[in-house]
Amino acid sequence: MTKRIKLMSILAFALVLIFGFVSQNAFADSRLTIVKYGLSPGASGFSENQTTNDGLKINNLPLDNLGNELSVVSGIHYFVYEISPIGDGSELTATNPPQSSYRISKEIADLVLIQMVWPVFL
User: Fold this and answer.
1) Where do the H-state alpha helices sit in 27-84?
2) Cα–Cα distance measured from residue 65 to residue 46, given in angstroms and rounded to the nearest whole number
3) Could you report the per-residue pLDDT of 10-23, keeping only the tens digit for each?
4) For the chain, percent helix, then strand, then coil, each to nearest 5?
5) Helix H or strand E segment including 3
């Protein structure tokens, strides 16, 4: 009986160890593409009367422009892209300016340009 208990204990430990590593690697890379605003040429932003607080959120981040813009989170790398129409507007291109990888240095949402740029495929 003790050999059976030892064998079951070793098997249970091995399964916990294996599934622990599998679950960590499965969620290591997550990408979320958010297209928030579409400004007309020459525009630099929206005024408050152009947007409404409709309560919509992505990952608990508000989507309105009333002082509740999408907030950045500490410890996550962000990539900034400019998405522009091509030709008649039926196709889009996403351009990534040089060194446009940002990370948050503090909880207070300070974007800091970092030297490491990783490719992100849209």
Assistant:
1) none
2) 8
3) 877 777 767 665 55
4) 25, 20, 55
5) helix 2-26
